[in-house]
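Section 5.1 Outputs to date
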Amino acid sequence: MIFEHTRNAPFRADHVGSLLRPAELKEARARRQRGEIDAEALRAIEDRWMSEAVLKQQRVGLQSITDGEFRRGWWNFDFLGRIEGIEVVIDPTSQRFAGLDEPRHAPVVRGKLRHARPVMLDDFSYLASITQLTSKFCIPSPATLYHRGGRAGISREAYPDLAEFWGDLAAVYRSVIHDLAAAGCRYLQIDDTSFSILCDETFRASCRVRGDDPDALPGVYAKAINDAIAHRPEDMAVTMHTCRGNLKSTWLAQGGYEPVAEEVFNTAAVDGFFLEYDTDRAGGFEPLRYVPPGKKVVLGLVTTKTPVLEDQDALKRKIDAAAKYVRLSDLCLSPQCGFASTHHGNNLSEDEQWRKLELVVTVAGDVWK
């Protein structure tokens, strides 16, 4: 097992954060929605299964420990929906997808953005109370509020000037991060799917149709992250994760990182990048040449979308290939995304999930002895 201090995060063997929800937890959430149990009863069940997930993460040898996002239905909406001025609504323009029996949702800005009440602070505090290892907390990037709908998703009455929107959003994030830091958070992950989706030519074309410049957006989104984390403690490690979709083992976009690499890697003031690299949809490692020395790249080579266990030697060869562009000492290994970006989860079993994470730890132990 590799032990490292929080200042070294991301760790050699790391993970994106979300875990498959146990059957009892899924059923409890459904019962809560039907009004059969109260919020306190649901939280007690969540607490028990989160504690079990923490123990299993520790047993497989991970050092970054998450709550599995067990209190969330969706990786992004649960967080954004707690910010005053944001409403998560059914998206009338979208069709059902990924075999879901529910409509797609979208966050929209109805009024001025404000940090009016704690946002997931109790969630982090509980996680920190049940592990002595590094408690890692994951939040959606500020760009996710704009990325899907663009200007149409932001009230012109509340924000006639988009610069004010970005300024207020950054202020909310700074306040949330301040609270997390005060509670002891020293490893924060910013989940930003926008950068990788901006590598897809189809989506880039749709950006132009709605009036956005896809070449300018990476700079806008990187600045949004920088403004959000501007006052973080010096000893807080912040990483950024990006992927091309992960709902029920499906994907939304494809294309290598070249269109965004130079801007994002050199502008985003984070300590490391979790990058999807489990399929050819992510392209080659050549865009990594833009990563500045000293910043870490976590190679998402192990897929969470299928139960097939990757070959250890094949993973090591891919790490060697990436090391042609980023020195080996600045590389790490992880799955390409979480196992359950939403409560539905991906198409594999819990046992298969833990074998995937054990594989990450084993290969990392061999590569970085």
